[in-house]
Amino acid sequence: MNRTFVICKPDAVERGLVGRIVSRFEDKGLTIVAAELRQLDDATLDKHYEEHVDKGFYPDLKAFMSRSPAMVMVLEGPDDTYAIVRSMMGATNPAESPAGTIRGDFGTIMTENLVHGSDSNESAAREIGIFFPNL
C-alpha cells in the first residue's frame, strides 16, 4: 500500500466541510491511517512550506493556514495514491476546477481552496514525516 498526506485547510474546517471531504476519500477506497485536528504553528508551517518562505505571498499563506485549526491526515491506497487524491481535489483555482472535484464543488476563491495534497510520493514521505513523525 502507498501513503499520501492531506490537509483539510482552515477554510474547510470553518465551513464544516471536513466530513464531506473525508467521505469522498473513503468512498474512493482510500483508508485513513492517521488524522488530527491541529492548530498549525509557525515552525511546522515554515518547514512544510520551506520552498515558499521567502516569497511575497508567504505571510498571507501562513496567516491563513494558522488562523484556525486544520485537519491533517495520512491516507493509504494503491500505488500513486497522491495522484488519486490530487485528481479528486481539482485545480488550485476553484473557478478552473471541474464539477465533481472537491474544489470544483465547494471552493470559492483560489487563496482559500480547502485542501492540500502531496504532489509526489517523495513529497508525501517528507510531509508525513513533518506532521506524523512516528508513522
Describe this structure in words.
The chain has a single domain, classed as Nucleoside diphosphate kinase-like domain (Alpha-Beta Plaits, 2-Layer Sandwich), CATH 3.30.70.141. Helix content is 41%, strand content 19%. The protein contains seven helices and four strands, in the order βααβααβααβα. It has helices at residues 10-14, 18-27, 42-48, 58-65, 81-89, 102-106, 121-131, and strands spanning 2-8, 31-38, 70-77, 115-117. A four-stranded antiparallel β-sheet has the order 2-3-1-4.
Topology (SSEs and partners):
Layout: E1 2-8, H1 10-14, H2 18-27, E2 31-38, H3 42-48, H4 58-65, E3 70-77, H5 81-89, H6 102-106, E4 115-117, H7 121-131
Number of domains: 1
List the secondary-structure elements in sequence, H or E: EHHEHHEHHEH
Strand order of the largest sheet: 2-3-1-4
Number of helices: 7
Strand content: 15-25%
CATH architecture: 2-Layer Sandwich
**Overall geometric form:** globular
Q: What's the total number of strands? A: 4
Kindly, what is the distance between the CA atoms of the first and last residues, rounded to a whole number of angstroms? 14 Å
Q: What percent of the residues sit in helical stretches (DSSP H or I)?
A: 40-55%
**CATH H-tier superfamily:** Nucleoside diphosphate kinase-like domain
Structural class: alpha+beta
Question: Remind me, CATH topology?
Answer: Alpha-Beta Plaits
Mean pLDDT: 97
Mind telling me the CATH class? Answer: Alpha Beta
Largest sheet geometry: 4 strands, antiparallel
Contiguous low-pLDDT stretches (5 residues minimum) are none
